[in-house]
Amino acid sequence: MKVKFLGHSSILIEDKNFKALVDPFLKNNPAYIEDPNDILGITHIFITHAHGDHIGDSAEIAEANNSLIIANAEICDILYARHKKLKYHPMHIGGAFRFDFGRVKMTNAVHGSGFRDENGIIHSGGNPGGYVIEVYGKKVYHAGDTGLTIDMKLLEKEKIDIAFLPIGGNYTMDIDDALEAARFIVSKVTIPMHYNTFGLIKADPLEFKNRLLGHIVEILEPSESIEI
Question: What is this structure's pTM?
Answer without folding.
Answer: 0.97
